[in-house]
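Notebook B, p. 112. Complex prediction, attempt 2.
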Amino acid sequence: DAGVIQSPRHEVTEMGQEVTLRCKPISGHNSLFWYRQTMMRGLELLIYFNNNVPIDDSGMPEDRFSAKMPNASFSTLKIQPSEPRDSAVYFCASSLGGLGGYGYTFGSGTRLTVV
Amino acid sequence: GQNIDQPTEMTATEGAIVQINCTYQTSGFNGLFWYQQHAGEAPTFLSYNVLDGLEEKGRFSSFLSRSKGYSYLLLKELQMKDSASYLCAALIKAAGNKLTFGGGTRVLVKP
């Protein structure tokens, strides 16, 4: 299994530009999570999906952030327009709905720098 | 709200033992996870406790007391490669299950 695949690994963009982060979960996993990690705030849950349906987006910082999961094998997190304070590492993770004691499997993350 | 506390940093010597404590105050608590994260890498699963007691897995053990809202991760026979951040995470049963993470404890292992 290739694990959770995220792209790109690194993204540098100018303030005001649109940024799209991509994630392919592990095949068979029915839950997908987007996290953001910074030194100041640690790992924060932004949004998660169950069976492609958004369940809880209360962690999405503001309307500039949106996430979609059009099918079981793909999700995107979009920031439009981007701001310097959005600079962080964005992780995607997936799991079986019942977890079974194995928690989440994280992707390698996308390091976003907004200048 | 959800509150998970753990020390920011700990230092220990190679071959020694280190215990990382985690206290939590959450609603809908459904279990406690520990993850390891090396610098620049993704978190990886270490352990999961849902019942009170100790779970042992090689050099790593994790303990949970649900009544006290307390867990610890015990690392024995420390190796240099154990230098990493250790994240405590509470599983919250909401609509589905979601993991809420503490700030992480950075462990530095010295020779």
